[in-house]
Amino acid sequence: MKNQFENNWTSGNNGYPLFNEEVEKYISVLPSENQVKLAENPFYCFIHFGMNTATAREWGTGTETPSDFTIESIRPEQWVKSIKAAGASGIILTCKHHDGFCLWESEYTDFSVKNSVFNGDIVKMVSDACKDENLYFGIYLSPWDMHEETYGTEAYNDYFCNQLTELLTNYGEINEVWFDGAKGANAKAFEYDWQRYYALIRSLQPSANIAICGPDIRWVGNEGGKTRKSEFSVVPKALCMAETVSKNSQHSEKDAVKLKTLTSMDEDLGSRKVLANSEELCWYPAEVDVSIRRGWFYSKNENKTVKSGRKLFKLYLSSVGKNCTFLLNVPPTNQGVIHHKDVHALQSLGKKISRITAAPILIENPGQLTDKDGWVDFDFGSSRKLKYIVLKEDIRKSQRVEKFDVYIKKANGKYIRVASETIIGSCRIIALKGKKCIGARLVVRQSRGNPIIPEIGFYE
Question: 6, 110, 260, 287: which is deepest, by most CB within 10 A?
Fold first, then answer.
């Protein structure tokens, strides 16, 4: 009888070269230190809050005035504690959305909180609250601005960089700068000076990752939480083109709904077939952005659309558990707090995430596999109910595993395959619903060079 484990990376590598010039090219692509830090903190939250919160809109009109921002107080400490309870590591605040209204007292416009009934700097209040709870803080600054008169001229790039400088110098360490490509269909034709923006960020906040119209983190391609079967981090460098993201982003308010139902734009972004046709490659991990509600800004009419903790957990498993980061939007109300339904869902999510690794059976560190490690066995010592397997690659040595299987070992010595997957990357979570077994076997079927597995954990 044929040994079902003999076909592995050491014997035939699934018909692909294990080492050659092309493979060396692929595994020479490595993450930056900022991207490594991102992979270690893969779940964080968006806070959409601003003029649209006060006017109960998703997109502004460009005709608002500071007096339309009628919110007089906020409780950022409640925002931060609610988000921390979900297990998130940081917050990204919409400091300026498409309407152009600034949540800080900008020197470069009168269209900000300084001329509203609100007394204070909302960006500072939120960044300070994050520091108090040891959460990272990031900023969203919309390149499209409906209000600013210079928009559409070269002077706007100066205006934008001036505001970006304010945000990058007055609020401590910034962990992520988030740009999108949303622009109204009737907006003036205008090319943003992306390279100038990036250079400014690198100079003022060198530890910040730049997403999504940016070189460090790519958009997964939809706003519905859908991910690919194989989310590679090593991809063609052409995907870093901000204009490409802009083209596929929202161009009207109704697009926000459409993007929640779209499948990923190109399913295959990083296979050998794709990479072989690309001269330049880069490390460009995917970020999954999803709102806890139907909309991105709070509306009392959407209280029934709040996703349950169970639904959020599924999104977590399909993002963080599949080599992506997870950016969950949690919009505060026009009363300045996160709604109790959202709070409950966040608490439920946090409990579910903590349960993944709460009861370890065995955690091992195989490291770099050798030609004797076509498969790796793990002995649990007794019969256990296996619920989760968490695998990690050493991404500092690139992303290597392209196909693997996991088997559980029953008390009678029989092996049963419970997972047949492709990539691992920074994190791969396999949920098994409590299968009884006395051990497990990992079989790497296909790899780019020797697989490097710094950690594999089994949990009940």
Answer: 287
